[in-house]
Amino acid sequence: MENLIERFLQKDRIALSKLITLAEDDSPRLLDIMKAVYPLTGKAYVIGVTGPPGAGKSTLVDKLIRSYRSNGYTVGVICVDPSSIFSGGAFLGDRVRMEWAYRDDGVYLRSLATRGALGGLAPRINEIIKLLDAFGQDVIIIETVGVGQMEADIIRYADTKVVVSVPGLGDQMQALKAGIMEIADVLVVNKADLPGAQDVVNDLQMMLRLRKNSDWIPEIILTEALNNRGVSELYEAAKKHRMYLIQSGVKEQQAVQQRGQLCQNAVQEQMKVYLQKCFAEIKDVKAILKVVQEGSLNPYQGADEIRKLLLK
Ligand SMILES: Nc1nc2c(ncn2[C@@H]2O[C@H](COP(=O)(O)OP(=O)(O)OP(=O)(O)O)[C@@H](O)[C@H]2O)c(=O)[nH]1
Ligand SMILES: [Mg+2]
């Protein structure tokens, strides 16, 4: 593994891929990997892009990557959950569309096909972001499908959160408002070539007026990702938001919080692994579990006894 980290530090993309896979698989080696690479992090600008299925997120991301590349930035892209029923087909489309990016050394694309063990977050998204950051990608874009709490969690640590909507969402628009709108830093109305785009803008403006007090008022950008319209406006809006984060001190506040959270999460993960080991290996714990399984001991009574045993 030393070798793998060594190769990673020498900018070997295969080593990067392997380390991301270890993160994705929740490898017990992850803690050591992160200890080694963390000192190299902190430079990347992270953008989260979310919205309903088929809104044109990938088309937009493709155009954004081109913009960042033409401005001299390297880019890492993480596409979360392309295996969902909505986007299984779209992912193949993405590969074809992104063909150019796979050939560009300054772009690293990765899709996370799996959900976490608990069915929640894509595993270790934060660690994967840190790996890309440490590898030297200037800009990291996370694309995720959906407008609920789970998607909000996936892009929680993005510096700039872009929520994409489109004309004709109907009831989904309500879900969008209830779910993810609160966290948006930039609002995009894509497919502005279709009828109804202005209605969506009006709707979003209304919603913004109800937004809780915040120093930052999200811009609403009309785009036609397919025709590359509005993409430079989105690029500028993201840049403006990034400057705001830095100048207002919000970025530093978020960093303080994030460092604590990463540490706590890592401890929790370690504890989970430790507990699994206890259940499998400690004789007295196994004995209590057995009695619980046989029905002679209340499971919660059993839990209490195991806790006392482990924490004594
Ligand atoms: N009319 C129109 N169609 C667009 C526009 N942008 C993207 N599309 C089309 O919308 C469809 C979905 O685009 P994707 O970029 O795959 O959308 P997505 O949001 O990434 O989709 P999922 O990842 O499956 O949720 C494709 O057929 C695109 O060509 C646009 O500005 N106007
Ligand atoms: Mg997509």
Explained architecture:
With 312 residues, this protein is an alpha/beta fold. The chain folds into 2 domains: 41-248, P-loop containing nucleotide triphosphate hydrolases (Rossmann fold, 3-Layer(aba) Sandwich), CATH 3.40.50; 261-311, no CATH class. Helix content is 55%, strand content 13%. It contains 14 helices and 7 strands. It has helices spanning 2-9, 13-24, 30-37, 57-70, 88-97, 99-102, 125-135, 149-154, 171-179, 197-210, 231-248, 250-281, 283-294, 299-311, and strands at residues 45-51, 75-80, 107-112, 139-145, 160-165, 186-189, 219-222. It has a 7-stranded parallel beta sheet, with helices on both faces. β6, α10 and β7 (219-222) form a beta-alpha-beta unit. α2 packs antiparallel against α7, α12 (250-281) crosses α13 (283-294) and α13 runs antiparallel to α14. The two termini are 36 Å apart. Guanosine-5'-triphosphate binds at residues 53-59, 86-87, 90, 93, 145, 190-191, 193-194, 224-226. Magnesium ion binds next to α4 and α5.
Question: Secondary-structure element sequence?
Answer: HHHEHEHHEHEHEHEHEHHHH
Strand content: 5-15%
Task: Give the biggest beta sheet.
Answer: 7 strands, parallel
Number of helices: 14
Briefly, what CATH class of the largest domain?
Alpha Beta
Hetero groups: guanosine-5'-triphosphate, magnesium ion
**Poorly predicted segments:** 116-120
Q: Which sequence of strands runs across the widest sheet?
A: 3-2-4-1-5-6-7
Q: Rg from C-alpha positions? A: 22 Å
The computed structural class is alpha/beta
Mean pLDDT: 88
CATH superfamily of the largest domain: P-loop containing nucleotide triphosphate hydrolases
CATH topology of the largest domain: Rossmann fold
Give the overall shape: globular
| Secondary structure: number of strands | 7
Number of domains: 2
CATH architectural grouping of the largest domain: 3-Layer(aba) Sandwich
